[in-house]
Design goal:
Largest sheet: 4 strands, antiparallel
Radius of gyration: 17 Å
Strand order of the largest sheet: 1-24-23-22
Structural class: mainly beta
Number of helices: 1
Shape: globular
Order of helices and strands: EEEEEEEEEEEEEEEEEEEEEEEHE
Helix content: under 10%
CATH class: Mainly Beta
Oligomer: single chain
CATH architecture: 6 Propeller
Strand content: over 45%
CATH superfamily: TolB, C-terminal domain
């Protein structure tokens, strides 16, 4: 069985939201707490960083170039240099208590961004969708920490996770991509890790980064665990597929809130790993504006 390997010599604070650019053959990701979007070009090993005025919870590449970026207070369009050009909407949560967190695009090129309710005293987070005409809409509530967004290859299901609640949900989508009633896909025991960021493969399986679980795992469309891969760090945060054949899994990890003794023992916390897999991932659409 293949083992995760380092992408390159890098450790971040809270790397999240890895996004593969097929046209550039490059990996993008956010470091949420540093307010950064990173780019690493695999062939040249060129690493560049764009800095933003607030935490970058999640983002997507735009079909027109640049990014759509969910920061703490608002969702913005930005050009390829990271310059904010148009505010799409304010954070519909209380931005002092809930920053944007996990997100991405669906097959139609619409952008989703969930929030994380920091006080954790009730389910105060939500999931927002930005349509192709830039209209925002809250599509789910009753969330503590939004994560795990991914879509089945046929577009009939949306997967999400609520990390602090240790649960993965799936939600049926109609022909227009509108969500129905969500249902529990799988729950976890504490020792299994908490389901964080995720991606789907072309066989309809769901790959989850299990935060605090030292591993990532692949689940069948019925929720059965099929595979797991152990990591040399405690907290993976998200996975995405990439590479020329879409059979490379990129894995972000974090060192947020870790004490110096843990970092000394596990210095790769915050690194990005790669893993060759036998099945290709579902390609992600860029954000499409009309």
């Amino acid at each position: 069985m293949a083992e995760p390997q380092l992408l390159f010599d890098y450790t971040g604070h809270l790397p999240e939201c890895p996004v593969w650019s097929e046209s550039e053959q490059a990996l993008y990701w956010a470091d949420i707490l540093e307010g950064e979007i990173h780019r690493y070009h695999l062939a040249s090993a060129e690493h560049t960083v764009l800095r933003f005025p607030e935490e970058v919870g999640c983002f997507a590449l735009r079909e027109k170039g640049g990014f759509i970026v969910a920061m703490r207070s608002a969702i913005w369009l930005a050009d390829k240099r990271g310059l904010l050009t148009h505010k799409v909407c304010d954070n519909p949560s209380n931005p002092e208590l809930a920053r944007f967190n996990d997100g991405g695009t669906d097959h139609a090129g619409r952008f989703y961004a969930g929030t994380f309710w920091a006080p954790q005293d009730y389910n105060g987070a939500l999931l927002v969708r930005v349509d192709n005409d830039l209209t925002p809409k809250v599509i789910q509530c009753d969330i503590l920490g939004a994560n795990g967004l991914a879509f089945s290859p046929d577009g009939k299901w949306m997967y999400t996770s609520d990390t602090p609640q240790e649960v993965i949900y799936r939600t049926p989508l109609d022909e227009q991509g509108e969500p129905g009633k969500r249902e529990v896909f799988r729950t976890f025991k504490k020792e299994e890790g908490q389901p964080d960021g995720a991606a789907t493969d072309i066989e309809g399986c769901y790959w989850s980064a299990l935060y605090d679980g030292w591993r990532i795992a692949r689940f069948s469309p019925e929720g059965e665990q099929l595979e797991e891969y152990r990591l040399p760090v405690r907290c993976p945060t998200m996975v995405c597929f990439g590479g020329e054949d879409m059979k490379t899994l990129f894995i972000t990890t974090t060192r947020e809130n870790m004490k110096q003794d843990e970092l000394a023992k596990f210095p790769l916390s915050g690194a990005i790993f790669t893993l060759p897999v036998s099945v290709a991932g579902v390609k992600k659409s860029p954000f499409i504006e009309r």
